[in-house]
Amino acid sequence: MAMAIRIRVLLLFLFFLSLSHLTFSLYQDQVGLMDWHQQYIGKVKHAVFHTQKAGRKRVVVSTEENVIASLDLRRGEIFWRHVLGSNDTVNELDIALGKYVITLSSGGKYLRAWNLPDGQMIWESFLPGSTASRSILSIPTNLKVGKDDLILAYGSGSLYAVSSIDGEVLWTKDLASEGIDVQQLIHRHGSNIIYALGFIGSSHFATFEINAKNGELLKHDKVRFTGGFCGDISFLKSDTAVALDSTRSSLVSVRFRDGEISIEQVHISDLLLDSSGVAAILPYKLIEMVAVKVKEFIIFVKLTNEGKFVVVDQIDHTAIISDSLSILEDQQAIALIQHGDNKIQLTVKLVSDWSNHLIKETIYMDCQRGLAQRIFLNNYVRTDRSSGFRALIVMEDHSLLLVQQGEIVWSREDGLASIVEVTTSELPLEKDSVSVATVEHSLLEWLKGHVLKLKGTLMLANPDDIAAIQKLRVQSSEKSKMTRDHNGFRKLIIVLTRAGKLFALHTGDGQIVWSVLLNSLRKSQTCEAPNVLTLHQWQVPHHHALDENPSILVLGRCGPNLDSPGVYSIVDAYTGKELNSVGPFHSIVQIIPLPHTDSREQRLHLLIDKDWHAHLYPRSPEALAIFQREVGNIYWYSVEADNGILRGHAAKENCILQLPDEYCFGTRNLWSIVFPSESERIIATATRKLNEAVHTQAKVVADQDVMYKYISKNLLFIATVAPQAAGDIGSVTPDESWLVVYLVDTITGRILHRMTHYGSQGPVHAVVSENWVVYHYFNLRAHRYEMSVIEIYDQSRADNKDVLKLVLGKHNLTSAISAYTRTEVVTKQQSYFFSHSVKAISTTSTAKGITSKQLLIGTVGDQVLALDKRFLDPRRTLNPTQAEKEEGIIPLTDSLPIIPQSYVTHALKVEGLRGIVTVPAKLESTTLVFAHGVDLFFTRLAPSKTYDSLTEDFSYALLLITIVALVVAIFVTWILSERKELQEKWR
Amino acid sequence: MKITVYSPKSSSWILLLLTLSFLLTSSFAFQSDELLVDDEEFGLEGGSGSTPDVGSTIPARPSQPARKRSPDFSSGSDLDSKVQFTLEHAFGDSDFSPAGTFAARVKNSPHSGQTLTKLRFSRTDFTAADKDNFKKLLEADDFYRIRIPSNLLTSPGRDYVISSVKARCLPRHGLDEHIVIHMDGVNVLAVNYGSQGACQYPRHLKFPKRWLFNSHTVLKSGEQAPRTPVFSEETAVGENGEGEGVAPPERSFWAKYWMYLLPLGLIVMNAMTQAMNMPEEQQGGGQAGSQVQQRGQSAAVRRR
Questions:
Q1: What's the sign of the alpha-carbon dihedral A870, A871, A877, A883?
Q2: Where in the cell is the protein located (chain A) (predicted)?
Q3: Cβ contacts (< 8 Å) between B216 and chain A: which residues?
Q4: pLDDT tens digit string along A811-869?
Q5: CB nearest to B184's CB, from A679, A749, A816
Q6: Cβ count within 10 A of residue A778
Q7: Residues 636..675 of A with a Cβ closer than 8 Å to B: which?
Q8: Burial of A244 (0-12, 13-18, 19+ CB in 10 A)
Q9: How many other CB atoms are found less than 10 A from the CB of residue A651?
Q10: From the CA of B268, how many Å to the nearest CA of chain A?
Q11: How far is B201 from chain A, CA to nearest CA, in Å?
Q12: pLDDT band for position B108 (50/70/90)?
């Protein structure tokens, strides 16, 4: 009976759905009301200042996220920004002719010129070459060929001279074929000769003289050094270099003057008394000086005119040094940063006068920023005509600071450009105490606001009022409060960045509520190369432990390999305090959150190490008891993408180790699927979200029939391609390329569905939800991208349609389902063309799963497109019947529509889009969407419109006034009519 | 050896449950047969396609040799070769030991390489030790595991494909097993092992009446994805009309212009009634007037 009612409700609901508009869009004045957008650039690795003779002082930077940006030096805002492709790493950056930004990227393959004021690309040159080499960009002053100023670029083993006007390659010289590994290009002022300096093999130093006019090789010299070079070299002047020998124990000075090369060797132990150990030349571009790291120290070494090494200074190895900056009268200035507790000390010194310093400033630094990692120095002329310095500092958490006069002028949280993982947390509950003052204040505001709103609705508002209304809307919507709201729109988005920093962002306006640099994920003695893995919700207080704060589990690994030891931290989600940090311990290969929590609502987690041992966390007797009770029902799977094997596992008794550990369990292999290595390679997997809510198991189809969805939390989608087709699109012919998709039950390893798309190729992006999978791939035969949908239905419940059976309770709808039951499934599938490539794909999720779903597709243009799931319905037919139309089935088309209004990001771009996360709000109709890449974007979506609430700008006052007016009118007319009747009667 | 004793009441309950489950599961078994027929049909249909599909159900009794079934498609081809591979089983975490052999023919076809046909399976009986082990599994609700090589020609190939089932799922009357082998040419992708029908949860301990296997084996290969429909003539319409902008079907005159016709009709009706009422109204008006007069008079009279 309940079933029938539910079906009827569903039918009604579907009918309403079909009435609702297909598109989601918002009006211009709604932008920014419930969405926010933040722009970042990533960790800065090159910076060039442009301050002389410029109205707007700026700094041009390139970052590890392959961004080139021009920043305002006064406030740190972005003037312009370009995000290069993910594999187009910027190698070198410089400014030419005072108006072009020149970048060399992709290992010296692309040379581009950008207009400095507005960032438009002026020209681009492709510099071909096959040998990998370091890339060097050199912009000599006053070196002209004809009228063109030359730009010298060395990449892929060849030297290119490029015209700075149009990017035309004037000449090339292949130097790799000469055997030289070029380290530096030097052009002496006023001459027409370019020197290419470098090593030949490991024991020769060579100089090549090249005619700058035509690239002709004039002369080449080489000299043999018996000790051999280790590769570290630093160029002090235009004719002197310092290198390290192959044992890294002595410095070698190389002088190349007038075609003669002379070499001298000095042991570091001669320079420094206590210097046993290996040395390294630090890769700073210093002039007249070289910085050498020896053990725990950095020593600054100068070379006198007689060729003697002199140690100038010796500082702690944690200090950070800037490249040298030429200031007036050919002086070289160097900035040093030394770390203290919660502060850094910035010192600027002249190379020629090392004992004195130009500036010595102590700057208080938030300890959550970690240590400084890079510094870029710039000078300016003070009001009293002396020279001042400002410095751009890159911190350990990838943030960028500008320091001037001992203060932080501005800072940017650019760590947020490299988000690894996202989760959310509820905000604390609201306390009931509200002071009187705020009420009185807000009463006036409230009245004002309502007058304004009334004006707006009655179209009486002038432009100023409209602006005020807009501002009010943005401000007064209570959206940035730090407490939980009724609709569940306010939450904390907790993001983990690659730098190992955890940020909590408020969903209302994107403000950073707290941030913490996790100690366990910082470089230390025990953990040399920390690597951020992921984060999980550790404790979500729900029923039992309401007075406790939620907490987050952050996992990391000390090193790049799978077998590196792991670390973890538990962080309070309200305050950002690190509650607990453990490690390094066993390796972490896989993390499995279990569907069980202990009495404090801490979620049980299994961490699988490389020896297939399962470690249980939290390590408490209670958790152990829960685990041992449920151990028979705990299964997991692993994907070995390299081997092409899928395995299913279960836990068994405690593992045998040297030290007995009751929280460690052995595992057993229950099933395996072996993909033939010669024909299939795993390229993508997708599973359902663990916390996804499904409202109904049944789907009512047009002819009053019911289909039962196959709903299993253990559904795995896996896609394989032919090994030869694993490369880029177009690298294979359609005949030798295929894509096989599987639906696998991860408990028993049963292949529920297997299907081959011939002539198709990856990359595959897939999303699994409820009983369907949508995946995106390239069809080589049709030369187009395609999206396919597979829906899977449970046939074994199909005979539960009899109402009589339902009434009598003779149905198997409530019985426990075992994965070992071989349920009969049927699949329906359909493919559609889709004109965009896809960067990420996700689906909306709501609290109860009633609201219809939309697919959120990250397009190639870094936007998020919302596509109604109904377009990807396998039951679409060319001419749907009337009943099917009522159900909301759209007539079949061969391609999916891209409706411009349905871009969730409207006019904005989420540059470098990597992921789309959806979180259900408490309000059933609404879902929160967070898209992250280099930029961040947040909005909330209502895929079927907000059918369960009034809009925010709904005027309750108007409604009240209307009701009151109506009531008054009723009374007045009633009295009038009474009177009239009376008069009639008296007549 | 531990012997579990049941009270007659509980055993009768289990019997009832079993018969119920048997009744329930019998329909499943039937359905699974249908699917296999589907597979076979697909194989026949897609004979020209590049993934031939072979479905065969061989109810194998360990005592009797496997029955030959299905017409011989490839009788003319002399490229066929026979292949044998073993099914191995393990009780819980024990080592694998042989438990049966599969025999099949490898068919070489120029289009799709080597494929497997005519699979036969002969199951070896449980030895006494096996029975003991299996009973232990039943008591501990542990896994019964099987494996077969992942490549039939270069056995065991890269690895074995493993499958397992909770031992308590198997016993019914005898021991029901259902083996689905997913093939890709001569490679075995996966094997799925389980009971014929449902495996109720919670699983009750129950020993088989007869230690005989009732085996079903199914060979499955993947299906080919249907082509994406292409409507070349309709794409133009679809593109300028935002996808679902297929031109609406021509509507009737009435459907199109009802909003104009309706007021027009009303006006006409109104006018007609007015025209018809004209003479009546004149009469009525006269009467009304006289009435008023009368009333006026009477009122006047009353006032007096």
A1: positive
A2: Endoplasmic reticulum membrane
A3: none
A4: 656 666 777 888 888 899 999 999 888 999 999 999 988 899 999 999 988 999 999 99
A5: A679
A6: 23
A7: 643, 645, 650, 652, 668-675
A8: buried
A9: 23
A10: 34
A11: 6
A12: confident
Nearest beta carbon to residue B143 from set A670, A824, A895: A670
Residue ranges of E strands in A427-577: 491-497, 501-506, 512-517, 530-539, 551-558, 565-572
CB contact under 8 A, A795 and B164: no
* 3-class state of residue A612 by DSSP: coil
Which pairs with CB-CB distance under 8 Å and at least 24 residues apart come from A816-820?
A: A816/B200, A816/B201, A816/B202, A817/B201, A818/B169, A818/B198, A818/B199, A818/B200, A818/B201, A818/B203, A819/A712, A819/A714, A819/A745, A819/A747, A819/A748, A820/A747, A820/A748, A820/B165, A820/B166, A820/B169, A820/B194, A820/B195, A820/B199
CA A348 – CA A333 distance, rounded (Å)? 7
Q: Which of A90-104, A457-471, A578-592, B99-113 shows the lowest per-residue confidence on average (mean pLDDT)?
A: A457-471
pLDDT of residue A188: 80
Which residue is it, tokens 């707006």? Answer: A456
Least confident span in A65-74, A366-375, A640-649, B69-78: B69-78
**Dihedral pair phi/psi, residue A390, rounded to 5°:** -125, 155
Helices (H), A816-923: 882-887
A956-986 and A436-457 helices cross at what angle (nearest 10)?
A: 70
How many inter-chain contacts (A to B, CB under 8 Å) are there?
Answer: 170
Do B223 and B53 meet the contact criterion of CB atoms below 8 Å apart?
A: yes
Of A757, A818, A893, nearest to B243 by CB-CB distance is A893
Question: Measuring CA to CA, which residue among A323, A281, A314 is closest to residue A296?
Answer: A314
> Would you say A252 and A261 are in contact if contact means Cβ atoms under 8 Å apart?
no
Residues of chain A numbered 810-839 and touching chain B (CB < 8 Å): 812, 815-818, 820-822, 824, 829-833
Residue-wise pLDDT for B59-104, tens only, equals 433 333 333 333 333 334 445 688 888 889 998 888 888 888 888 8
Non-local (6+) Cβ contacts of A414 within 8 A are A40, A41, A42, A43, A44, A63, A398, A399, A400
Question: What gap in Å lies between CA B189 and CA A679, rounded to an integer?
Answer: 11
- Tally Cβ neighbours within 10 Å of residue B141: 15
The full DSSP string for A429-460 is: PPPS---HHHHHHHHHHHHHHHHHHHHHHTT-
Instruction: Quote the ipTM score.
Output: 0.79
For chain A, give every domain's residue range.
Answer: 433-480, 962-987
Euclidean distance between CA atoms A207 and A692, whole angstroms: 66
User: Taking a contact as any Cβ pair under 8 Å apart, which residues of chain A between 896 and 915 contact chain B?
Assistant: 896-899
Q: Could B157 and A674 be called an inter-chain contact, meaning their C-beta atoms sit closer than 8 Å?
A: yes
Distance from CA of A677 to the nearest CA of B (A): 9
Q: Do A818 and B201 touch (CB under 8 A)?
A: yes
Torsion of CA A217, A223, A225, A231, to 10 degrees: -20
